[in-house]
Write a structure and sequence with these properties.
Elements (H helix, E strand, L loop, with lengths): L2 H9 L6 H12 L7 H13 L3 E6 L5 E5 L1 H12 L11 H9 L7 H28 L5 H39 L9 H20 L1
Antiparallel strand pairs: 1-2
Helix pairs in contact: 2-3, 6-7
Length: about 210
Amino acid sequence: MSIRHGLLALLERGPRYGSQLRTEFESRTGSTWPLNVGQVYTTLSRLERDGLVAQDGEDDAGHALYSITEEGRVELRSWFETPVDRANPPRDELAIKLAMAVGAPGVDIRAVIQSQRGHTVKAMQDYTRLKARALADVPTNRDEVAWLLVVEQLIFQAEAEARWLDHCESRLVRLAEAAATEPAARTGTPAERRSAKAGGAGGARTGTRR
């Protein structure tokens, strides 16, 4: 998630200070993407540099307040209206791990898949329980609705990952079966196979002349 735009969205509701923004951000997302105060203030400094927020005095406790500017509102509207770019997806550690495990010496890739599937299914079950608790009482405020959307996205993501792992395992089984049924002539090095093929062709030509 864009922390930059998430903070702008919170500031549109009124002036906030750093730790307040962190608390509201985590409440809105169910602490799925935890922030630290330093990260919040670093982002606020950049937003201020870009003219998207401005310092707006202090509250009664002496906390420095920040407000969204008109330029910030324009930036926020643009973020809401622009689809998330999928042309350059973020790196996925699991996909990289399986890609590197294929053919790696000493690695049982099916064991890797099975281990990950168990972890993914457990995570999906945990998210489902969180959703059930969230729905025990009908969500009544924006933070509760926002958290419900986040946890449902996590459930769908885990379901998709489990299906993909099933697909990966099925593909490996098919490849193993195909390799087991290759003709015996496929054994040996490529050079040996070419030599055997050339010898067979020469014998055929000699037999034709006789």
